[in-house]
Structures are given as C-alpha cells and as structure tokens.
Specification:
5 helices; 66% helix
C-alpha cells in the first residue's frame, strides 16, 4: 500500500531526474579536470536519450496503472531509464572549452536543485497528510 502511495506521485520520476543530474555532474566535472590533458575527448550523458527513456517509462507506468495486474508483479517502468544512464557519449575530437563545461554544470545543477525542491515539497505534503496537520 505504501509503495502504491509513492508510485502514484511524481517522486519516482524526480528520483530518476536527481540520479541523472548527479551522474551527469560527475561526467562534466571530469571534463573540466581533464581540460588540459592532450588528446582528451569530452564526454557527456545524452539528455535527449534520458528524456525519451523517462517519457517511455511514464507511459508504461500509466498503462500498468490502468491494467488489472497487481503492481507487485509489474515490472519497474524506470529500469530502462537507469540502464540508459550508463551509456556515455563521446564526441569526436570536439573538446569543449571551460566556459561551455561550466555552463552545462550550472544548467545541470539547476535541474538537480529543482527536482530536489519539488520532491521535498511532496514529501512534506505526504507527512502533513499522515500526521493530519494540513
């Protein structure tokens, strides 16, 4: 019952967004650390692929919610999203400058912080509902 409570909210979606942002931040920080390394190729995680996987996972979750199958036997719709984060794209001999990497880190940080803020607000609402303090 508790798992149904959380799975019907956006908390699982926000969890995937936070995980992706953390992994991407590590990759971008590695690019900055190796900026002066001769022959180093910048790396990045594909935000387009992540968003497409997340969209498919949401559609699968919604389809499972309308089906008669119990949620315990249903597959985790977010498994492909997590698996998609493991594929790091390498750009062919295109080393991006420090300014570009810092801009990507700033955008990534904003996405991460927004997801955490929304998740925190939802958990506070759930806590208030449980304790009957509205």
């Amino acid at each position: 019952m508790i798992s149904n409570l959380f799975s019907s909210t956006t908390i699982p979606v926000l969890e995937q967004v936070v995980n992706f942002a953390q992994m991407r931040h590590q990759v971008l920080a590695g690019n900055i650390a190796n900026l002066d390394t001769p022959g180093y190729r910048t790396r990045d995680l594909s935000t387009e692929a992540f968003q497409a996987n997340l969209r498919r996972a949401l559609e699968t979750r919604d389809e499972q919610a309308t089906s008669l199958a119990p949620p315990e036997t249903a597959l985790n719709p977010f498994a492909p999203v997590k698996a998609g984060m493991e594929g790091i794209l390498r750009h062919d001999d295109d080393n991006v400058g420090l300014e570009q990497q810092l801009m990507e880190i700033a955008k990534n940080e904003m996405q991460h912080n927004l997801a955490l803020t929304i998740m925190n607000n939802q958990l506070q609402l759930i806590g208030a509902a449980i304790s009957e303090r509205a």
